[in-house]
Design goal:
mainly alpha, two-stranded antiparallel ribbon, 5 helices, about 140 residues, Arc Repressor Mutant, subunit A
C-alpha cells in the first residue's frame, strides 16, 4: 500500500487518484434535451423552469444552464399606465368627488381598497407580481 501511495505521489503530486479532470461535464445535454427545453419555453414563454424540468425530465439546474447558454433570461412583466393630456379632467373630477365623499363620510377612505398589485376583472383577480417571461 505504501509503495502505491509513493508511486501515486511521485506521478501525480497527490495522494488522491482519479481526479484528472475535475471540470463539470455537459455530456448529459444531448441536442434533443436542449431542443425540448427550448421548445417548452418557446411554446409558453411564461412557463417556470421547474415545469420545464418536469416535462423534459432533467434536473432544474440543467434547464437554467441551457436557457442561460441560449441567452434567455427571465423578464419580470410590469404593467404601467401612460397618462395623456385627456386624462387630466377625469382625474380632477374624481379627486373632487372623493373629497365630497370624505366630507359626508369621514371614514369613507377606510372602505376603499387601494392596491397596485392586482387587477380585478369579471374573470377574476390577475396578480402579475410573480409573472416572469423568458426573452
Amino acid at each position: 500500500m505504501f509503495e502505491r501511495l509513493h508511486w501515486c505521489l511521485c506521478e501525480t503530486g497527490s495522494f488522491v487518484t482519479g481526479m484528472h479532470d475535475t471540470g463539470r461535464s455537459r455530456s448529459v445535454w444531448t441536442p434533443q434535451v436542449v431542443e425540448d427545453i427550448l421548445q417548452g419555453v418557446g411554446d409558453r414563454p411564461d412557463i417556470s423552469t421547474r415545469e420545464v424540468s418536469r416535462a423534459v425530465n432533467v434536473p432544474h439546474s440543467i434547464v437554467w444552464r441551457v436557457l442561460q447558454d441560449e441567452g434567455l433570461h427571465p423578464y419580470h412583466v410590469q404593467k404601467v399606465q401612460a397618462l395623456i393630456p385627456a386624462d387630466y379632467a377625469p382625474r380632477v373630477e374624481f379627486a373632487r368627488w372623493f373629497l365630497q365623499q370624505l366630507a359626508g363620510h369621514p371614514d369613507f377612505s377606510a372602505h376603499v381598497l387601494f392596491t397596485d398589485k392586482s387587477t380585478f376583472t369579471r374573470e377574476g383577480i390577475s396578480n402579475t407580481y410573480n409573472l416572469h417571461v423568458f426573452f
